Amino acid sequence: MTIALMPLPYAQDALEPHISAKTLEIHHGAHHKTYVDKLNAAIEGTDEAGKTVEEITKSASGPKFNNAAQIWNHGFYWHSMSPEKTEPSESLATAITNDFGSMDALLEALSNEAVNHFASGWAWLVVDAGKLKVISTHDAGCPLTSDVVPLLTVDVWEHAYYIDQMNKRPAYVKAVLENLLNWKFASDNFDRGTAWTYPA
Ligand code: MN3
User: Fold this and answer.
1) Which residue among 96, 99, 108, 166 is least crowded, i.e. fewest CB within 10 A of its CB?
2) pLDDT at position 55
3) Source organism's superkingdom (predicted)?
4) Inter-residue contact 151 to 189 (CB < 8 Å)
5) Ligand 1 centroid to 44 CA: how many Å?
């Protein structure tokens, strides 16, 4: 059994004008696919063949970790965006008010984390010990290796925005935060209390 390149949960042009079809074609069809191809090549004929993306991410190191974590992070990222307007569930909305004061304050914290993360990585909204928190991970860093429950992520690798925005990461982050965040997905993760699972 090999790891599959999961399909995008929407059409390639569904996030336009905020994220172009060209960006998704390359980001999903080339970047995400390359992580899948490299991991499958690395685990072929080993004990890790047949393990899930989550299992490999939690146990591997080096290139196997990097590829597995990037496969999972990208799957989570595709779901973190939606072409449709979404709202947090009642329970998540209450937690946002309790832990950040308001949705605007949360979005400001997430924007600061995403814009200011140095070089490649990911900005995340997570639950850490029962409290909502904004964090970032570097390169392939993945929250599955810690105890937090991820709710949403923003990819801040340059390949996520260079075709559409060139070097302007703040413009990309603003476009995602103001138009695309999938609060239904965040609420599902929050209400379940465990992270989404990469499709087998
Ligand atoms: Mn990426």
Assistant:
1) 166
2) 97
3) Bacteria
4) yes
5) 24
188 is in an annotated binding site: no
Residue 200 is predicted with a pLDDT of 86
Q: Tell me 18's DSSP state.
A: T
Residue 68's pLDDT is: 98
Q: Is the pTM of this model over 0.90?
A: yes
Q: What is the CATH number of domain 90-192?
A: 3.55.40.20
Query: Binding site annotation covers 74?
Result: yes
- Residue 28 labeled ligand binder: no
Average pLDDT (134-148) is 98
Going from the Cα of 85 to the center of ligand 1, the distance in angstroms, rounded, reads: 23
Known binder of ligand: residue 159? yes
Q: How far is the CA of 194 from the centre of ligand 1 (A)?
A: 23
Residue-range domain boundaries for the chain: 21-79, 90-192
- Average confidence (pLDDT) over 166-175: 97
